[in-house]
């Protein structure tokens, strides 16, 4: 049951919701008290995608394998920078991410990845 349906406005869940979906969609959900479907959640950006239950394990595995095939240090650096820059002004975020990218570019494995790209070959990571 959604809180507003029993007289309780979901103020604390609203914090996360309004940071995940457009304001109009969040407000509609908060005051309307209706559950939404998985396809609708994907449509408004609450989740990345909706898949049939029978395909969930395979698609989850495939996506995890796709990420695991990337250079782990780059993914780790990028994940950290993604979360750090979200709280910064645009100018601060560009400066911060420029520094992060420079540090990433100095890694020997990054150089190997760029060389593989230029050679039109798949990169081979030493992970």
TrEMBL record:
Gene3D superfamilies: 2-enoyl-CoA Hydratase, Chain A, domain 1 (3.90.226.10), Lyase 2-enoyl-coa Hydratase, Chain A, domain 2 (1.10.12.10). Belongs to the enoyl-CoA hydratase/isomerase family. Keywords: Fatty acid metabolism, Lipid metabolism, Lyase, Transit peptide. The lineage of its organism: Bacteria, Pseudomonadati, Pseudomonadota, Alphaproteobacteria, Rhodobacterales. InterPro entries: ClpP/crotonase-like_dom_sf (IPR029045), Enoyl-CoA_hydra/iso (IPR001753), Enoyl-CoA_hydra_C (IPR014748), Mitochondrial_ECH-domain (IPR052377). Pfam families: ECH_1. This is Enoyl-CoA hydratase domain-containing protein 3, mitochondrial. It comes from the Bacteria. May play a role in fatty acid biosynthesis and insulin sensitivity. GO terms for molecular function: hydro-lyase activity. The keyword Transcription does not apply. GO terms for biological process: fatty acid metabolic process.
């Amino acid at each position: 049951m959604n809180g507003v349906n029993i007289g309780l406005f979901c103020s604390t869940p609203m914090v996360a919701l309004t940071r995940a979906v457009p304001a109009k969609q969040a407000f509609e959900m908060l005051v309307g008290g209706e559950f939404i479907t998985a396809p609708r959640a994907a449509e408004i950006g609450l989740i990345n995608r909706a898949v049939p239950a029978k395909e969930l394990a395979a698609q989850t595995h495939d996506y995890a394998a796709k990420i695991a095939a990337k250079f782990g240090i780059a993914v780790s650096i990028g994940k950290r920078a993604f979360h750090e820059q979200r709280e910064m002004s645009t100018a601060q975020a560009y400066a911060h991410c420029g520094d992060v990218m420079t540090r990433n570019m100095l890694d020997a494995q990054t150089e190997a990845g760029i060389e593989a790209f230029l050679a039109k070959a798949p990169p081979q990571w030493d992970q």
